[in-house]
Write a structure and sequence with these properties.
By secondary structure, the protein is mainly α.
Length: 213
């Protein structure tokens, strides 16, 4: 059956669409509402390691950001919004992996290039990304507003979770194809290796004739 006419494929895409738009609305609401929430509650995302680590760059950029001397409220809004947006991105990535229509994995020739991009992206985010007054517009800058810093963080989250989702889908596709290959080999080996292929046909002792000399 063609993929476009497959009702299961259509259902999966509909579910992914529902997840996408729901998380978009949640992201916008979170960005707008967190600055208006009580600071004490919002600061949990700065002071509790697990909540702060929902976005890995909160850990690597923490000292730099604190040394910029933003207000207590700005610090908490910065970490809380990034952590919540990262949680939404991660949730959507899981929804894509679970409900993505089953298809062929990408060609292996493309894996090397994408693997290099992935390693460079994650390595750059963890070890080299941070505040600087360079000319690059996507760099974090000391004079950026909190909303500008969060927007630049969102670009990084998109790239990070895009490549994470890609590799999860590749791993699942590889696993699925391997299981199918093992099942096909088992079915092909059964007629040749089965004992039933060498046994004579069964005859009942009461209906069988006398043995031939």
């Amino acid at each position: 059956m063609p993929e476009q006419g497959n009702p299961e494929t259509a259902r999966r895409r509909k579910v992914i669409g529902i997840w996408f738009w729901s998380l978009v609305l949640l992201s916008v609401a979170t960005w707008v509402l967190i600055p208006r929430l009580p600071t004490q509650g919002v600061c949990y995302f700065r002071d509790i390691w697990f909540l702060k680590a929902l976005w890995h760059q909160n850990i690597t950029i923490y000292d730099q950001f604190i040394n910029l001397r933003p207000s207590n409220s700005q610090q908490c809004v910065f970490f809380a919004t990034r952590s919540m947006l990262s949680l939404y991105f991660g949730t959507f990535a899981c929804a894509i992996v679970i409900y993505s229509p089953k298809g062929k994995p990408p060609a292996p020739k493309a894996w090397i290039r994408i693997a290099l991009i992935t390693v460079f992206l994650i390595g750059q985010q963890i070890f080299f990304d941070g505040f600087g007054d360079g000319s690059r517009g996507y760099s974090y800058r000391a004079y950026d507003s909190i909303n500008s810093l969060i927007f630049k963080s969102t670009i990084r989250m998109f790239l990070f979770y895009f490549f994470l989702t890609f590799w999860l889908l590749v791993a699942l596709g590889w696993r699925r194809n391997r299981v199918r290959g093992d099942e096909s080999e088992s079915r092909e080996a059964l007629p040749q290796g089965s004992d039933n292929a060498t046994k004579p046909p069964f005859t009942h002792p009461l209906t069988s004739g006398p043995p031939t000399p």
